[in-house]
Design brief:
Asp/Orn_carbamoylTrfase_sf, four-stranded parallel sheet, ornithine carbamoyltransferase activity, cytoplasm, Asp_carbamoyltransf_Asp/Orn-bd, Rossmann fold, 309 residues, OTCase_ArgI
Length: 309
């Protein structure tokens, strides 16, 4: 059966650790693996604008000996005349893998069900699993381990980043806290899935409304934009409702003294995070951004090896 990476719990705890270890090795020796030599082509499809995802996948595919084929759905049949499954059946005859940055998770699921090459979720409305691999890699570099660490996400708990933190953090054996107001809580099913994983890994998941209580003693503090793509018209309401969850130096003071600050970027400075935090000594956002390259390369190497068996 073809292995895909559509959400964070598509890999087991042992598999997640294996991918992260491979990412560490590839960061030390960037051109050590060439599974796409030929060169083979990887289709990288964008429904949404992108900086880090586009660059990291294009560079990573080239590093692995392949050729990235960047496709905009605005200039293709996908999402118009053709279904995801039909597109996948065409692409699988020409490419080694498919990467898709899109809106609905259902389209990714349909595409994966219709193809024999691995499909990678480069972002959907529900999850951002490639970003989480990069984030876990960055934390591992800074702390040497993941299990037992407490990570707090503040802001829109229903966003893709919060939901991926629940699943990926639980898989890594972390204690994941989500702090958000009513109406911005994660999916009940995602929380239940993460709790079930945490019960096996020794981690935990918890939901908070009080940002200070959530951050207290945390090893890692994370936030994300309050206004995701497609929700620009909601900005005024979101700023009013999420303002108490802004990460500033006063809030960071409640975390562990050596707590790390993370943000997947782009950041709306002055809204979800202040400049003094994002540019401060606890911030590791630039390492986090670079690690998209190394984590995604490791993921592609791992998936291609799994599907070659």
């Amino acid at each position: 059966m073809t292995r895909h990476f559509l959400r964070d719990d598509d890999v087991t705890p042992a598999e997640q650790a294996e991918i992260l270890q491979l990412a560490l090795e590839l960061k030390k020796d960037r051109f050590a693996e060439k599974p796409l030599a030929g060169p083979q082509t990887v289709a990288v499809i964008f429904d949404k604008s992108s900086t880090r995802t586009r660059v990291s996948f294009a560079v990573g595919i080239a590093d692995l000996g392949g050729t990235p084929l960047i496709i905009s759905t605005a200039n293709s049949q996908l999402g118009g005349k053709e279904t995801p499954s039909d597109t996948a059946r065409v692409l699988e005859r020409m490419v080694a893998a498919i990467v898709w940055r899109t809106y609905g998770q259902a389209g990714l699921t349909e595409m994966a069900e219709g193809t024999t090459v691995p499909v990678i979720n480069a972002l959907s409305d529900d999850f951002h699993p490639c970003q989480l691999l990069a984030d876990l890699l960055t934390i591992t570099e800074k702390r040497g381990h993941l299990a037992g660490l407490t990570l707090t996400f503040l802001g829109d708990g229903a966003c893709n980043m919060a939901q991926s933190y629940l699943l990926a953090g639980a898989t890594a054996g972390m204690h994941v806290r989500i702090a958000s107001p009513a109406g911005y809580t994660p999916s009940e099913q995602v929380v239940a899935d993460a709790a079930a994983i945490a019960a096996q890994t020794g981690g935990s998941v918890a939901l908070f409304t009080d940002p200070v209580a959530a951050v207290s003693g945390s090893d890692v503090v994370v936030t994300d934009t309050w206004v995701s793509m497609g929700k620009e018209e909601e900005k005024a309401a979101r700023v009013a409702e999420l303002g108490a969850y802004r990460v500033d130096s006063e809030l960071m003071a409640h975390a562990a003294s050596d707590a790390l600050f993370m943000h997947c970027l782009p950041a709306d400075r002055g809204y979800e995070v202040t400049a003094e935090v994002i540019d401060g000594p606890q911030s590791i956002i630039w390492d986090e951004a670079e690690n998209r390259l190394h984590a995604q390369k490791a993921l592609m190497v791992w998936l291609l090896a799994q599907n070659a068996r």
